[in-house]
Amino acid sequence: MAADGIGYLPQTIPLPSTATVQDAVDLALADLRALEAELGRAEQALGDGADLATLAAYATLLERYEARASYDADHRVDLALHHLGLPALPRDRRLGTLSGGERSRLALAAVLAGRPELLLLDEPTNGLDDQAMEWLEERLRAHHGTVLAVTHDRVFLERLTSTVLETEAGKVTRYGDGYAGYRTAKATERRHRLQEYQEWRAELARNERLAAGHAVRLDGIPRKAPLANFGHGGFRARRRAHGAMARIRNARERVDRLTANPVAPPPVPLTFTARIRTAGDCADASAAEPLSVQLSDVRVGGRLHLDSLTLGTSGRLLVTGPNGAGKTTLLKLLASQLRPDEGSVQVTGPGGPSTPGRDTVAAGPDGGRDVRAGPRRLRRRARGCPADPRPLPPGGAPTADRRAVVRPAPPRGPGTAGL
What we know:
Blueprint (H helix, E strand, L loop, with lengths): L5 E4 L11 H8 L1 H17 L5 H16 L5 H11 L16 H14 L4 E5 L7 H12 L4 E5 L3 H7 L3 E5 L2 E5 L2 H42 L23 H18 L18 H10 L2 E10 L3 E9 L3 E5 L6 H8 L7 E8 L2 E2 L6 E2 L7 E5 L4 E5 L19 E5 L13
Parallel strand pairs: 1-2, 2-3, 8-11, 8-14, 12-14
Antiparallel strand pairs: 4-5, 6-7, 6-9, 9-10, 12-13
């Protein structure tokens, strides 16, 4: 018997912050909990001299229960949490103490543990690092059933999807052959739309020229000529029945129809343009602009240890790494939402010291500096641009574009240098 049930993953868990992890698990496994309760009632009925109908109903429930391996659901939740970066998460922990990414991973683990036949996943890749993404992709490829996912992750689409449903203006369009087939079909559609638009423009311009040309010819025909009633062609008196007037009228009617039913051009495809900067450009830019962010020997509990970080007024910083490595802690320090236990954080903007400036801490291009971090330490190695000639704090970096890669520190051991 095939597994049944529907597993739905919302973007946020519909529970208050006072609810516990166990409450979230029970909510995701509500149909299994109901199946267990129904099976328990059926077992009790068997002891009261059950007839054949009762035995058949019990057998059906038991088959459904075993098809989804309901007896092992809670263990599968723990395994999924481990793969998603939340090992040994206490079941009595309050949801309000979890970050947004942790709540998303908790909900995902619980939904997958239910093993429903139909999985409805709303942005399942939110809050996942590379390791968790790889596990999720393997888990979904092994799923015996249907997966319907809403996602903006194109790599995820390329690796998993066999069919793409696009919703636009209240209309749903189906594309086969996965994401590659979707892109091919969209490119073909765009070519057809562009051709239709160009044909519409050409037809509109042709009829406008016809109307204008016949109007010029009509102006050359005399309104009154000698013996006009006996003439022919261009010498005939100009009146409504004249051929030029009919051609002008027809052309103008076609212009009106084309204008009333325009063909919209296809949207302009998005393109990314960037100026490739050389090492010399980076050095010149870093020497010319003032510093906007300066962090020195910053420590926040066991979550973050950053020796030094500098960022100029036009700097760009990409923060990436596994969950729990200290990315959010770093951003909260820069946003003045968190005070360090040790060290100094200086953020200078248009309003003066300790105010947000024009620096952007977001996804951006690789280059400049590479800052690697773990739960306790951060280390940096130079990439791309040469060192800034200005004096900086020990371990400081020039203000060129850089990338902050947050990764856990390797464990200490024999022959292993601590970071």
